[in-house]
């Protein structure tokens, strides 16, 4: 049986072949010949067959994940964690894509596809509503609380490009029993009011025939595959790693790993000892973590540990669920965005993703695109990210 990647490649190849035939006739200003119609239909049927196989494979995989989740809930792990992240992002972008299709249909109305070209369409933010999750979190975005924009517009209707947030910079609790009339002890709990700006996240599609606008089902596939998922992945990367160090001319996003004030655990003795030390170092500061983030290869190394070092039974017989028991019962989210050899533990409720406004979808058919009867899509959103309590996180070095 072909893999999902092979099926997607086959779909893309067959669809591209059909497009080449149609585009050639379109560029020559003529109708398709009967031979061209027959060849295009052959490619389209092959595309439909591959799509049907992919739909079946995806359905079977979803059922397998559902079974794996139920088994994990009772302490059994089938080791399917490596695919959770991409699946969750696909689910999120699909839900968003369906909302966008509704907006496109409203805009097109009775005037058809031409009403979509040359303007900007307000569409739902791709992260405005968290995906409903049953069971464990499966991606970094699942862990990050959303906050809607709180600023109000000025008399001219301007909102501005900045947002404010609080950062806890000190915490020293000195409460104790106090006799009548005695001065009360002071706890040092300090916050700073900080300001940052929203960043623009955007992506464009490759040029495509304008006639595709007449097929909303085709458009929704483009939105899901190229726009929604791409923006979600970019946000995850910036939330975790940021976009570089500040300079005189650059004002990058500060991700969790770049925010000063978080704790750090150096490697000691063994990987398990190091992870355990990090857990207790963080909880000793009265922080209650809610998740680990690890590279999938580091989780795999834990799963393959054996009682005798290189021999004997697996140390964690039930895989991820047994590992989580040792590491504090906190769920482990795997991500390729965190470097192998580094882990992160923290209370992700001490962060927030701020959505400035609805996203915008622009469809352009001007310039050289006009002469080729083509259009391009551009999806754009504006988001801010803040870490409200840096000390709620600890990075862990897993390399000796």
Summarize the structure.
It is found in: Virion. The protein is α+β, with helices and mostly antiparallel strands.
- Poorly predicted parts: 70-86, 130-134
> What does the radius of gyration come to?
26 Å
- Mean pLDDT across all residues, rounded? 77
Distance between the termini: 42 Å
CATH class call of the domain at 137-148 and 194-399: Alpha Beta
Question: Major sheet, described briefly?
Answer: 7 strands, mixed
Subcellular location: Virion
Protein name: Phage major capsid protein
Domain Phage capsid-like C-terminal: 158-397
Main location: virion
Structure write-up:
This protein is of the alpha+beta class and 400 residues long. It has a domain at 137-148 and 194-399: hypothetical protein PF0899 fold, CATH 3.30.2320. It has nine helices and 14 strands. Strands 1, 2, 5, 6, 11, 12 and 13 form a seven-stranded mixed beta sheet that branches. Strands 7-14-10-8-9 form a five-stranded mixed beta sheet. Strands 3-4 form a two-stranded antiparallel sheet. α1 packs antiparallel against α2 and α3 crosses α5. The two termini are 42 Å apart. Mean pLDDT is 77; it is low at 70-86 and 130-134.
């Amino acid at each position: 049986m072909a893999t999902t990647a092979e099926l997607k490649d086959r779909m893309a190849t067959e669809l591209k072949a059909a497009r080449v035939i149609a585009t050639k006739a379109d560029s020559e200003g003529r109708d398709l010949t009967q031979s061209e119609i027959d060849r295009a239909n052959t490619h389209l049927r092959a595309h439909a067959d591959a799509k049907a196989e992919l739909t079946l494979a995806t359905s079977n995989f979803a059922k397998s994940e559902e079974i794996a989740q139920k088994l994990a809930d009772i302490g059994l792990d089938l080791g399917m964690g490596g695919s959770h992240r991409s699946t969750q992002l696909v689910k999120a972008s699909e839900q968003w894509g369906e909302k966008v299709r509704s907006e496109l249909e409203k805009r097109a109305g009775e005037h058809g596809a031409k009403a979509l070209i040359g303007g900007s369409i307000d569409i739902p933010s791709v992260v405005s509503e968290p995906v409903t999750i049953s069971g464990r979190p499966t991606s970094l975005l699942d862990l990050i609380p959303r906050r809607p924009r709180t600023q109000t517009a000025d008399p001219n209707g301007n909102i501005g490009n900045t947002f404010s947030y609080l950062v806890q910079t000190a915490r020293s609790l000195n409460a104790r029993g106090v006799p009548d009339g005695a001065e009360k002890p002071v706890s040092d709990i300090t916050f700073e009011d900080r300001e940052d700006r929203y960043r623009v996240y955007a992506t464009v599609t490759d040029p495509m025939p304008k006639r595709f606008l007449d097929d909303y089902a085709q458009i929704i596939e483009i939105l899901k595959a190229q726009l929604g998922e791409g923006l979600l992945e970019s946000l995850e990367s910036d939330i975790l790693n940021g976009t570089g160090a500040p300079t005189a001319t650059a004002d990058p996003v500060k991700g969790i790993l770049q925010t000063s004030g978080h704790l750090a655990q150096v490697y000691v003795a063994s990987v398990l000892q190091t992870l355990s030390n990090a857990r207790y170092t963080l909880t000793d500061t009265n922080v209650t973590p809610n998740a680990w983030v690890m590279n999938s290869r580091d989780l795999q190394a834990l799963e393959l540990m054996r009682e005798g070092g290189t021999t004997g039974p697996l140390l964690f017989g039930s895989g991820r669920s047994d590992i989580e028991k040792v590491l504090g019962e906190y769920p482990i989210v795997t991500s390729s965005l965190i470097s192998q050899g580094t882990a992160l533990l923290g209370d992700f409720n001490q962060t927030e993703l701020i959505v400035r406004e609805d996203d915008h979808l622009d469809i352009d058919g001007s310039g050289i695109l006009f002469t080729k009867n083509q259009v391009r899509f551009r999806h754009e959103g504006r988001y801010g990210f803040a870490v409200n309590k840096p000390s709620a996180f600890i990075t862990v070095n897993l390399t000796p």
